[in-house]
Amino acid sequence: MSATRTPRPPRPVSPMSWRKGTGIAGRSWTGAVREYDLFKELTIGVIAVTLLVLAVSAIFSSPDDKAVSLKSWAIAQPVDFVTTATAELGGTSNTAGYGPPYTSTAGATQTLGPIDLQSLPGVAIPIDTAKDFVIGPLSTLPIPPAEVVSWTSATADQRTAWTTAYAAALDKAKGGTVAPTAKEGPVPALTTDLLAMARQGSLDSVLSARGNFYNLDYTRVILFMGDGTYLNDLAAGLHLSGDQWGMMNETGNYPGQSWLWLFSFFYQIEPFASLPNADIVVVMLVGILTLLLLLVPFIPGLRSLPRLIPIHRLVWRDYYRRR
Hints:
The chain has helices spanning 38-60, 70-76, 78-90, 129-139, 147-153, 156-173, 187-200, 202-209, 219-226, 230-237, 261-267, 278-294, 305-308, 311-315, 317-322, and strands at residues 18-19, 28-29. By secondary structure, it is mostly helical.
């Protein structure tokens, strides 16, 4: 009987096991080889990642809520919509008195002494709230309401009297039905027709398209909704308002932009929270702090803090232990 020999395990092959030849072209690999299909590996990777993304999307969904539109506003809170449209006609809304870059309202800008950053670009996006939000959209209808002519032909004082009377009637009704009277002129009819236009969904496209093929500019839609209480109430319910650290929050239980905490922080404390020009004060303060951070390597004493307080040695303790 012959003894059975135990096969010797293969000897490891050096990665540099090249057969000597003349130059690079004369060298060939003499070590172990195995088949490798790059296309197959790529296909498997793409399929695996795709399935993983779909599975995670199905489980966690998207952190974004359904988009808010003028249509949803008109259906959910018609009284607020009509009240806001009346303010747009009367020029008493927030947008009408915002100042640059939308209007040239005097004294509307936030200043810090002689610094008036808001006025630097000027009125870059001019907005006439009555024309852009109410009269203009109604004029695009196949048969514009006759009240549009009545409004455009009236004097400024007459328009103010109409909108003031209707705003007072809406406020007195507290969400109830308001019977139109002569002293309110065409305002009730105009706002009612605009409400119907919004409920049909056509007002969204008219305000955002503005004669263009693609709807890419939602500035006027957002400003119009922001003048009412509907959008603000939704934001407060989702903890997105300014006094709720809204700048760095996300809808639902999802993390938001945590790197914006420094801006949001100053809006939560006094005296910044109650300043009428809080925006420019916070921007200037954060700008100064950012500049100081950039200049740390050049400020004597401050640049020595890492050496005096060696926290980096704790972070990189493995490296310093080996040394």
